[in-house]
Amino acid sequence: MSALLRLTLFTKANCGLCTTAKEALTRVQAKIPFHLDQIDIYAPGQEAAQKYMFDVPVVELNGRVAMMHRIDEPKLIDILHKEQENTATK
Question: Is 22 in contact with 15 (CB distance < 8 Å)?
Answer without folding.
Answer: no
